[in-house]
Amino acid sequence: MTRALTISDAESMGMDGVRLERAGDLVRRGLEQKLYSAAVWMVLRHGRVVLQGCCGAAQPEHTAAACSMQTVFDAASISKTITAVLLLQAVEEGLLHLEQQCGAFLPGAADTAVGRVTLKMLATHTSGLPAWAAVHETANPLQTILHTSLEAEPGSRYAYSDLGYILLGSLLEQVLQAPLPELARKRIFQPLGMDSSCYNPPEHMHERLAATTAPLGQVHDPNARGMGGAAGHAGLFSTAQDLAVFALAVHPHSHTHLPDTPPALSLLARSLVSTRQTAPPLSAHTIGWFAWPNGYLPLGDLLSRQTFGHTGFTGTMLLIDPVHDLVIVLLTNRVYYERENDGSAVLTQRRLFANLIGAALR
After folding, report:
1. 3-class SS at 176?
2. Does the predicted model carry a pTM greater than 0.90?
3. Residue 3 lies in a domain
4. H-type helices in the chain, by residue range?
5. Residue 227 near residue 136 (C-beta atoms within 8 A)
6. Which long-range contacts (CB under 8 A, 24 or more apart) does 342-350 make?
7. Structural domain contains residue 1
8. Parallel/antiparallel/unpaired status of strands 326-332 and 316-321
9. Per-residue confidence at 64, pLDDT binned at 50, 70, 90?
10. Fewest 10 Å CB contacts: which of 8, 106, 336, 358?
11. Would residue 5 count as lying in a domain?
């Protein structure tokens, strides 16, 4: 059953409602500038919704129906956070540990350079793998990645890599003995009441989808699409509310915010999500999430440096600031206009949005 989030007056949560509304105004201006055709935003303080809104048309070429809070977006690389939670659940169950090498789990990997990369390196983008390759164009994407030449010694360089998370997804399917969509559904979506979250959206959900440049109902990412629509790095479709609930479930204070729901992870596992797991001078990354001072984290200037989060190429963002007890969700379909802009304006908008939320704190 879909979980209902409590809506509270901003002032009662220690925030300035007028300043919060400026964040919505910023997103509406992005619609006028044709940065996207649809957007949904949601901000939580102390586990309660203090701001939410939507604008635009989810499928401007197919229907005149307005975007709503129930619009489902291609979350793109926010999918990696789902994969990371599944990884840590396997750790909690004693099925693996993060310093094990992936060659111990993936057939044919033991004698490859990739085979000696640890699970932690895959999860923190320090494997030495390239950032991307068109593995969907090959007969066996997994074997193609396993036989890819490393660009750096494992553990010596940070390079944000889809390939590493594709490997993690395949590895978890072997360890947990089920396809990735089924693992996510049974272990995360169902327990948390994330009823609008899935991979490969079924036909009855298509009218709620925000359009991208991919065929309606198909994931935008070409590698994920070529691998059946679900992979460790992409494929998740979700709503703002579902992602807010997911954020609360991995939040350091999830026992307070979701008292009647088991957290997605135990207390100590959540600390691996919320704190940096890479050593300087490598860029900061937790198990699954960007951390300060990683340049991929759209922190802005005002949120705490303990903020962690993730973004998606399609135009999505999820931030958690445990110091100020904030969850920030901003979902857009910026790739709908990717032929007309390079996405840099959306990257700037994310930081401006985070600043406006931070400025609303009393």
Report:
1. helix
2. yes
3. no
4. 17-32, 79-92, 119-123, 141-146, 162-176, 180-184, 190-192, 222-226, 240-250, 254-257, 267-274, 344-359
5. yes
6. 343/315, 345/30, 345/33, 345/35, 346/30, 346/35, 346/36, 346/315, 347/298, 349/26, 349/27, 349/30, 349/35, 350/298, 350/300, 350/311, 350/317
7. no
8. antiparallel
9. low
10. 8
11. no
Span 71-94, pLDDT tens digits: 999 999 999 999 999 999 999 999
The torsion angles phi and psi of 57, rounded to 5 degrees, stand at -120, 125
Helices (H), 37-186: 79-92, 119-123, 141-146, 162-176, 180-184
Number of separate domains in the chain: 2
Q: Of 176, 206, 233, which residue is a domain's last? A: 176
Residue 56 in tokens: 């635009």
Residue 127 included in any domain = yes
Rg (Cα) of the chain, in Å, rounded? 19
Same domain for 144 and 266, yes or no, is: no
Token pair of 24, please? 């919505």
CA-CA distance, 175 to 170, in Å (whole number)?
Answer: 9
**C-alpha–C-alpha distance, residues 246 and 287, integer Å:** 15
Same domain, 117 and 255: no
Per-residue tokens: 143: 């074997």
Domain, as residue range, for 60: 11-81+179-359
pLDDT in tens, 123-155: 999 999 999 899 998 989 999 999 999 999 999
CATH number of residue 31's parent domain: 3.40.710.10
What values do phi and psi take at 251, rounded to 5?
A: -65, 145
